[in-house]
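RETRY 2/3 - previous attempt timed out on the joint model. Re-submitting the same 226-residue input unchanged.
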Amino acid sequence: GAVVSQHPSRVICKSGTSVKIECRSLDFQATTMFWYRQFPKQSLMLMATSNEGSKATYEQGVEKDKFLINHASLTLSTLTVTSAHPEDSSFYICSAREVYTDTQYFGPGTRLTVL
Amino acid sequence: EDQVTQSPEALRLQEGESSSLNCSYTVSGLRGLFWYRQDPGKGPEFLFTLYSAGEEKEKERLKATLTKKESFLHITAPKPEDSATYLCAVQGQGGSEKLVFGKGTKLTVNP
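RETRY 2/3 succeeded.
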């Protein structure tokens, strides 16, 4: 149980294009999902907290107009990187909070490369 | 401000050589302490949640314990497949659902 999927697992795009990453909780409902970014050999950096049916809460220094988050249902959150640039290249990971145990379960991650 | 410090940063063990990883934390009221395992290029895999001091949980060769100031992840007779980065995180009772992560311990188990 408690499986979270992400799609795509890997994406390569040209500078200036937008990329959408999907995060789904497959066997539980998640009122809260989180988006993280991870640089090589570093720990996870929280970008934003996504609550179903409401606006996301972004961490300090994260541009909300660049990283658009939508949490339209209890099992799906999306992160759109708009007008991507090479410095946006990174490993993006989502997590979903299981309410009864208060535990975050993580997706497998998406490797974004912007050329 | 909630903080998590993990030690050591890296640990090399021989197969079968038991050891412990440490996670020291400061938090304004602990709501939960979490251990995850992360393999290169993958998302963290959930291992344990501990809620109160004195609690212990086990899974195969891993055992997690919790005190009011720290948590230990004990690895008994490790195998090469236990090689990974182990992450510790805490959630405080301040109303936020955010996790505060340590920087992790990279474990390498040599055959």
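The radius of gyration of chain A is 13 Å. Closing ticket.
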